[in-house]
Design a protein that fits this description.
485 residues; alpha/beta; seven-stranded mixed beta sheet; 12 helices; 28% helix; binds dihydropyrimidine-2,4(1H,3H)-dione; binds zinc ion
Length: 485
């Protein structure tokens, strides 16, 4: 058999195994794993790791917030930063705002991504306006286009849906095999504390942390899990930042519920002390849910180790530290007027590798599962996320010994800061392939914008998550009423 490319002499890792083999690539697919493979085009991977390319499953790219602010990264710069950080595909959000149609939203994001991305992509659809038309006509159409995950917000005045709308979306998603994702924070708690803080003159960025109490997340995760349980629907809780929230997810999973969770870099590596900077500097560290404390970091690591979280993401939400982003409402804006989010798409995997694998907190196989395999399986990207014959040749070759200092420049995004500036990390991706083609090679960008393709995703697979029909919705125990499918 002849190959277009052979990766020679590396140590391969998947979510289950580590072994030494060459990888033969033909037609963009992994065609062989073996010893002594040859081709005209070869990459020497001696003393390197050959891993599935990362899948960044939570990032905000070319996305307007409900108040109009635009992320600094578009599909070109966001995908380039992702690739330098070891990713070969990503799933940003396509955000419907009130008054917009769902299909109009998807068409808009198609126009932003096509011809721009250097890696493969899909979108999670954000639903802020669940009209009858959206629920009955447009969500099924989105689903048929291969968009099989829908995100909702329980907070933010211009985005949030109420419990009844949440139940409608969960039910439609379940009917079509889609996964509902949720930003779970209690809106009333946040606005009540925020207004009191601002009235008392506590407007600096540091007050963002007390304005989003841990209880707001805990209450909302509990409610979201209860709403999903009522209709026996799958649910994915994004950016979990509290141990208690993680415990609710673990308990629900143990009961057989179709509940999944994610945590993000900033909750493992930063704390609310980072927000406590002079002037507006703390705005660089504002995200929602907010940064917590060191005991929380330790508890979240334990949940990663124990398997509570299926996915580890960056929640890259890039707003520059200037008047296009964090300072858009002026240098004296209150924390309520500052865009939420921080960059991290290029540093998610080096952080998890260096501080997770390198420091013995997780195995290399867990790293692969959390960075690629679980996202591929949960979000229905069947040909990605592992190294096996027939899969897309989406690969990242890592030097596990290389130590680099993090700088804004080596993030390759459109940002003017990184929260991790000056950090020294060991273990970096050196070459990333997408469907067998070099995207980044030894620090040089090879792929052209537009090389990345849209990935239609399959329905969510709930095998192994039996769920439970509550008696009130079961015709056998509710006097024969058919309330929900
Ligand atoms: N939620 C996100 O998922 N990202 C940025 C800010 C937010 O509220
Ligand atoms: Zn969110
Ligand atoms: Zn996000």
């Amino acid at each position: 058999m002849s190959y277009d490319l052979v990766i020679k002499g590396g140590e391969i890792a998947t979510a289950t195994d580590r072994f030494h083999a060459d990888v033969g690539i033909a037609g963009g697919k992994i065609a062989a794993l073996g010893l002594g493979l040859e081709a005209d085009d070869m990459i020497d991977a001696t003393s390197k790791l050959v891993l599935p390319g990362g899948i960044e499953a939570h990032c905000h790219i070319a996305q307007e917030s409900a108040t109009g602010g635009m992320t600094s990264d578009d599909y070109r710069t966001g995908s380039i930063s992702a690739a330098y950080g070891g990713n070969s595909s990503f799933v940003p959000f396509a955000a419907q705002h009130r008054g917009m149609g769902v299909i109009e939203t998807l068409d808009l994001y198609d126009s932003r991504a096509q011809g721009a991305s250097v890696i493969d992509y899909s979108y999670h659809l954000i639903i802020a306006d669940p009209t009858e038309k959206a629920l009955n006509d447009e969500l099924p159409t989105a689903f048929a286009r291969g968009i099989t995950s829908f995100k909702v917000f329980m907070t933010y005045d211009l985005m949030r849906i109420d419990d009844r709308q949440f139940l409608d979306i969960l039910t439609v998603a379940k009917t079509h095999g889609a996964l509902t994702m949720v930003h779970a924070e209690n809106s009333g708690m946040i606005s009540w504390i925020s207004d009191r803080l601002v009235s008392a003159g506590h407007t600096a960025p540091r007050y963002h942390a007390p304005s989003h109490p841990a209880l707001a997340e805990i209450e909302a995760i509990n409610r979201a899990i209860s709403l999903a349980a009522l209709v026996d629907a799958p649910l994915f809780i994004v950016h979990v930042s509290t141990p208690e929230g993680a415990e609710l997810i673990a308990k629900a999973r143990l009961s057989g519920a179709k509940v999944f969770g994610e945590t993000c870099s900033q909750y493992l590596f930063l704390t609310r002390d980072d927000l406590d900077c002079p002037g507006m500097e703390g705005a660089k560290y504002m995200c929602s849910p907010p940064l917590r404390d060191v005991p929380t970091q330790e508890a979240l690591w334990r949940h990663l180790q124990a398997g509570t979280f299926s996915v580890f993401s960056s929640d890259h939400a890039p707003y520059r530290f200037d008047d296009t982003g964090k300072l858009a409402n002026g240098p004296n804006a209150s924390f309520k007027q500052i865009a939420n989010g921080m960059p991290g798409i290029g540093i998610r995997l080096p952080l998890l590798f260096s501080e997770g694998v390198g420091k013995g907190r997780i195995t290399l196989q867990q790293f692969v599962a959390l960075s690629a395999t679980n996202a591929a399986q949960l979000y229905g990207m069947d040909s990605k996320g592992s190294i096996a014959i027939g899969m897309d040749a989406d690969l990242a070759i890592w030097d596990p010994e290389e130590t680099r200092t993090v700088t804004v420049e080596n993030q390759h995004d459109a940002m003017n800061y990184t929260p991790y500036d000056g950090w020294s990390l060991t273990g970096w991706p050196v070459t990333v392939l997408s469907r067998g083609a070099r995207v980044v090679d030894q620090g040089t960008l090879i792929a052209k914008p537009g090389a990345g393709q849209f990935v239609p995703r399959r329905p969510v697979d709930m095998t192994g998550h039996p769920g439970h029909v509550v008696p009130e919705l079961d015709p056998a125990t509710n006097f024969g009423a058919e309330i929900a499918p």
